[in-house]
Amino acid sequence: MMQLLKLFLVFAKIGLFTIGGGMAMLPLVRNEMLARGWLTELEFVDILGISEATPGPMAINCATFVGWRVAGLAGAATATLALILPSLICVLLFGIVWRRYRNHPGMARVLSTLRPIVTGLIMAVALQLCQDVFGAATAGAEWGQLWRSLLVAGVVCAGVLHGRVSPVLLLLSGAALGAWIC
Amino acid sequence: MDDSAHDAPAPRVPLRSLYTSFVRVGAGMFGGGYAMLPLLEREVADRRRWVTHDDVADLFALAQAIPGVIAVNTAMLIGQRLRGWRGAVVAALGAVTAPFLVILLIAGIFDRVAHSPAVVRFIAGLRPAVCGLLLGTALRLVWRGWRRLGAWLLGLAVTVLTLACDLNPVWATLGGIVAALLIQAIVTRRGRAEAAG
Hints:
The structure holds two protein chains of two kinds. Chain A is mainly alpha-helical. Chain A has a domain at 2-103. Helices cover 85% and strands 0% of the residues of chain A. Chain A is globular, with a radius of gyration of 19 Å. Chain B is mainly α. Chain B folds into two domains: 4-113, no CATH class; 147-197. In chain B, 81% of the residues lie in helices and 0% in strands. Chain B contains eight helices and no strands. Chain B has helices spanning 4-7, 15-27, 37-47, 53-65, 70-113, 117-145, 149-165, 169-196. In chain B, helix 2 packs antiparallel against helix 3 and helix 2 packs across helix 5. Chains A and B meet through helix 1, helix 2, helix 3, helix 4 and helix 6 of A and helix 4, helix 5, helix 6, helix 7 and helix 8 of B.
């Protein structure tokens, strides 16, 4: 019961404090999962990979996965619903007054200020992830392994920047390339 | 609190079809966020004709300003537009149904297969690929969003503070909202003073 309550509170907090959707949730999700000991650094990377390759936003996938892990089916349902509950309340409260305030300059200012902050947070997570993944190879001085991983990451990164290929396809072909050469 | 009466003069959309429509959208929702927009438009604007393309674009914009997952927020807003609060709940549940079931399936077998050689190899390949994907996404956001020097400095400061001092994302977000509202209040007051003087 305590576990369910904790799951509920943590995922409701994640749902409430991220504006800007999926990717914007990563920093907080990573923070919370590592702090509670619900996922290790590398498990977080794995969940991220699984989330991208399966339907649904990453935060939802992560909530379901971690909820299941911590408290089975009830945990999965609790975490998933807790994640969307704050949004639901906001939709019901603010959806109606949106038309009055959508052109308010304060709203535009908040959004334009949050955008670089969220991008900065995502950039930090991306770098932390690289450290988690490449750090293991560097620490073991497995340079060949490191170069091959960097090659896979570089290819996928270049594909994303190119922008014409679906991320799911990129990720899966990157993983296949990695499985083949690593 | 049924506000659908003013918004949707069209015949009432059955909750059941609202649910199945959003299950369909949720099942094809790879990558979330912007990736779901074309799918959503095809389902609710083209196939069902419940709302117009402009409505979808409007609600999608609003969804970004509401906390939470953008895809689910958009679903809720469309559900609310069509059937009030019941519609919002049903649409949200529909949108998460397919992802929930797929992840349950994976989570159920994950610990059992995690040590098989094929899975270990695939995950070893998946990890650097995820790094590349996220780094590429972050770079694209930087390219697209940091047009002005102020935005560059703010974003860079957040990245450095997060890496160096473990800046909490909640505080970064709340701080941003408070600072933006303060600046807006000052700008408004100054504008008013100038208009008066």
